[in-house]
Design goal:
alpha+beta; GMP Synthetase, Chain A, domain 3; Rieske Iron-sulfur Protein; four-stranded antiparallel β-sheet; binds FE2/S2 (inorganic) cluster
Amino acid sequence: MSNLEELVQEINRFEAIISEWDESQRCVAVGLKRAIEALHKAALTSLIKSLKQESMSALRHAVADEVVYAVLLYHELVKPPKPPLAQRIQTAFEEVRPGLNSHHGDVELVAIKPPDTVEVRLIGTCSSCPASTLTLSQGVEQAIKNHCPEITKVVAVNNNPTVNNTNSGLISPFSSKITSTWIKVATIDQVPEFSVLAVQLAGNSLILHRQGVRVTCYHNACTHLGSPLKEGKVENGIITCPSHGFQYKLETGECLTAPDVSLQSYPVNIKDDKVFVKLQKL
Ligand code: FES
């Protein structure tokens, strides 16, 4: 048994005895322990300060001793060892994974490129989402930088838009025949002016909105993390995503919250009172 273990066992033995005492006696013992510890901490702090001024190598040598290190750690005078970088990156992923998974996405580590770069891959919905840059910078990159301050560059590589897209609907799995055909989806009076109409078309979830006689059609997916927009609140021609509040102009699909992530829109044709949509992206 090492010197450190013996010393710790001795402390534990006395603590176990004291824990059996009545409360007033325990308070005295704990008070005495705290007072002695405070004295030791003050002395150790001065000692470290002097050693730092005289010789950093002497300080490092002293801290290499397991008893010295354990006592300094107990008094919070040295930092606990950091887990390896790869482990901290996984901790960062665990933090953002619930959000990504809830939108059928995920992230994986591709490579660590010392001294300051990490390569990651967004997978599932996140890889094909028009807002993947935002997902990376707002979620994944921030989490990595919080856990790994030495990392200053997080690069997304090898996005594969065909990976696991069956739930996303961002890429039509249907034939060119269907995508190039006008399909009736509603009558004009079924398309509301103050909300949206959700329709399913050949496996694609779409929303329709009308302003006067003009009808627009979009993929029913927020460009932030892919939430359905059909429950979003519509005010003054602007729809707000129920998940995190991204806003879009229903006239154009333009995103008012983040630039360059407009809604995916589809061509609309109105004949008599019927609304036709072509599953061909604009
Ligand atoms: S999914 Fe986040 S704002 Fe829509």
